[in-house]
């Protein structure tokens, strides 16, 4: 049994209702007690009592009078998103990034561990542990760690089933290494699923409008989310929130779009399948193609670059009108589009957000993807599917790692408020965090 | 607002708990009060009170002493699955089947409406209404109608977005036509999703072992279901229950495996996509291939057969060792296998059940599918995925239509018990249903 087992779920109905209030405030910003009562189907006295407890425990603050109230005063309430912080750690094939964020996803501090090879992995695991413990020791307002790892990630076992181009990660048991390594609860999620959580929690365009009148927002924030985060980076992954819940599958291997074949007679993949989407449009595949004899004249120094740099080179060259680069980028974007068609037919989300390295291609990517979708997806389904690029203020997977922790906070906010008090008491000092711009990677 | 709106959800905590008891009994068979209390986390007095109400309302019956109780008497309880009946209606491209089933999925009466063309559809809708009303009038123990329709089915609008090879169905609004057409609640579901519900509710191998001792079944029936029903019939469809819940997507268009491409440069499909799985292994595609010039010598009379007959002919010829038939069947089964690989990578279920016309190929299908999966799916995921053929006592989609209604019964059993009493009072006679073997299609 984990020492952090109590952080899973609220232990009473009052705590469960406080969690519902915290999530609503996180989603909507500033709300009145009356609006919260209406949205959650609770009585005004019940809400007053719950809110009083949340103010006392430091979860909620009053923001002053709301505009628009007709006859009586209406005081705004907000979740104290800046008072609690989480660490997000993103494990990619060849690098590890970390960052400190507040509950609103605001980046406060960021860093990276150096590039690594397959052999460095045990040392990297050790370095992550040391780094996270250092950051935690310096800031008692950090109450959880979220980690995002490449999929397929076997969530109950704590292992990655396969990391194409980086087999070394298969030997790491993330649950054993990290679940008890820190003085705060630690949660691990497949990278694209973490990204989906980040889009859902932090992407501003998805938020319900703030309270603008005495009757509250026009749309009640109760429609269940159907969202796909389509990670096109070193690997290709997908995280799907369906009717408000992440799709995991039996062992955590669901929504592995990167290994869904787009051509059963196509390129072989390390997973055993042929024609895996990942083999055509991941940063690794792009880099590989740029190094192929076919393109030797076009990208002569590409062999010395890392995958991210190779992609950047391709995007720049294409933007300058270079013919081979434009043609290759178009091929890549077309395959990203095939992936979108599969996402629509397999998961029918209302929104597909494309993120990570290959999303750096920007507008040309979005244009091609939308064209492929309009040619190949059913009108009824594509017309109700918005496709956009991630607009988060940081790497979507890193912010996703933070979102995994924030999501857990919102499931049991009272437990985390206690933890925060306890940590502040122990360390005996106020949090000192350098702003993001001063941080050293 | 529907006149049957009250049948959606239980209206009190007591009713919700009765629904939980009903579902547990439906799943496990015969259980003691003590076991139910333990499984649901309720106190013994609470269970006694709830069970007393359920006995009084005719939902539950006592079955006598259970074996294995050590010191005190342990009386078995069972859901009265034979006392309540539902009608299932299966809409396929060119035929409509219907059947009466009890809550355990036992077939009591079955029939079919004649084969139809695109032009007959309005008449067919009318004929279904008349037929269902006749059956309902004769049997007051029928308390709901479930319907299964080909996907992609837009669940909120009540329309089918596309029926390949049978566009006429697109003009039908199922919600408008049927939701108020009968004196009992009517529910409509995409066919493969209905099939998934049937596998979950009625497939015996999935049931938790019956009570064998005073401590109840070894495994508590609380593990969330991750099940895929893979419909390979006139169309190719998929229904996925993930963590106990059907995956629907925003408009009901999720899990449309038939239109997930296995070859982006492959055969064009009416949906706009290319290389849709359905274009390679549906009964329609098989029939089309058998009619192609390539096979003109092998299946000379196949043009005069319907799709089901054509498939039967292929399976028979292959079983007799006929070379072109064996080769074609192997190609078809290979594509069914590609579909399984995509299911594993997209949904990671613990069980894939293959059903409908093409499942009639039997063992050769299963062998090829398992071989393809072992070649192409990740070991970690395929090793925890059982693949089998549907073993239900009736067509899985027809039984699925019934399962849609039974599932709703189990969500609010007290409401249906009242409805049943009310219907019995009105009609003033006991149900008279001919057994299945005497029914006339």
From TrEMBL, chains A, B:
PROSITE patterns in the record, alphabetically? ROK
Q: Which Pfam families match?
A: ROK
Does Transferase show up as a keyword for this record? yes
The family assignment reads: Belongs to the ROK (NagC/XylR) family.
The Enzyme Commission number assigned here is 2.7.1.2
Name the domain of life: Bacteria
Protein name (Swiss-Prot/TrEMBL): N-acetylglucosamine repressor
Q: Does the keyword Metal-binding apply?
A: no
Question: Which InterPro entries does the UniProt entry name for this protein?
Answer: ATPase_NBD, ROK, ROK_cs, WH-like_DNA-bd_sf, WH_DNA-bd_sf
Instruction: Provide ranges: composition bias, Basic residues.
Output: 423-432
* Sequence segments annotated as region (Disordered): 421-441
Q: Which UniProt keywords apply?
A: Transferase
Molecular function GO terms recorded: glucokinase activity
PANTHER family according to UniProt: BIFUNCTIONAL UDP-N-ACETYLGLUCOSAMINE 2-EPIMERASE_N-ACETYLMANNOSAMINE KINASE, ROK (REPRESSOR, ORF, KINASE) FAMILY
């Amino acid at each position: 049994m984990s020492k952090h087992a109590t952080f899973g779920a609220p232990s009473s109905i009052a705590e469960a209702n406080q969690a519902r209030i915290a999530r609503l405030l996180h989603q909507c910003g500033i709300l009145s007690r009356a609006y919260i009562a209406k949205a959650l189907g609770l009585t005004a006295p019940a809400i007053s009592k719950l809110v009083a407890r949340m103010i006392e425990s430091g979860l909620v603050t009053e923001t002053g009078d709301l505009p628009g109230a007709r006859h009586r005063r209406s005081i705004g309430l907000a979740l104290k998103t800046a008072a609690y912080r989480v660490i997000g750690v993103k494990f990619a094939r060849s690098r590890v990034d970390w960052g400190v964020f507040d509950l609103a996803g605001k980046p406060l501090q960021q860093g990276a561990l150096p590039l690594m090879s397959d052999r460095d992995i045990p040392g990297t695991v050790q370095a992550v542990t040391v780094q996270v413990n250092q950051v935690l020791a310096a800031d008692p307002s950090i109450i959880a760690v979220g980690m995002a790892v490449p999929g397929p990630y076997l969530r109950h076992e704590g292992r990655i089933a396969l990391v194409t181009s980086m087999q070394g990660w298969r030997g790491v048991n993330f649950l054993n290494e990290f679940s008890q390594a820190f003085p705060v609860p630690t949660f691990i999620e497949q990278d694209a699923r973490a990204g989906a959580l980040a889009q859902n929690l932090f992407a501003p365009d998805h938020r319900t409008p703030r309270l603008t009148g005495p009757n509250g927002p026009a749309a009640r924030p109760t429609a269940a989310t159907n969202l796909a985060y389509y990670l096109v980076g070193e690997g290709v992954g997908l995280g799907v929130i369906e009717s408000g819940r992440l799709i995991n599958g039996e062992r955590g291997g669901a929504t592995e779009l990167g290994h869904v074949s787009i051509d059963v007679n196509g390129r072989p993949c390390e997973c055993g399948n042929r024609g895996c989407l990942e083999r055509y449009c991941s940063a690794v595949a792009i880099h590989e193609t740029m190094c192929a004899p076919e393109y030797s004249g076009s990208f002569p120094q590409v062999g010395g670059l890392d995958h991210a740099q190779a992609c950047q080179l391709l995007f720049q060259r294409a933007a300058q009108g270079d013919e081979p680069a434009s043609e290759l980028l178009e091929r890549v974007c077309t395959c990203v589009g095939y992936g979108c068609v599969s996402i629509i037919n397999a998961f029918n989300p209302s929104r597909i957000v494309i993120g990570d390295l290959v999303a750096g291609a920007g507008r040309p990517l979005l244009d091609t993807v939308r064209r492929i979708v309009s040619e190949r997806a059913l009108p009824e389904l594509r017309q109700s599917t918005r496709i956009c690029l991630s607009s988060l203020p940081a790497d979507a997977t890193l912010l996703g790692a933070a979102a995994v922790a924030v999501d857990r906070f919102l499931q049991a906010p009272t437990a985390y408020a206690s933890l925060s008090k306890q940590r502040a008491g122990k360390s005996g000092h106020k949090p000192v965090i350098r702003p993001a711009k001063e941080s050293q990677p």
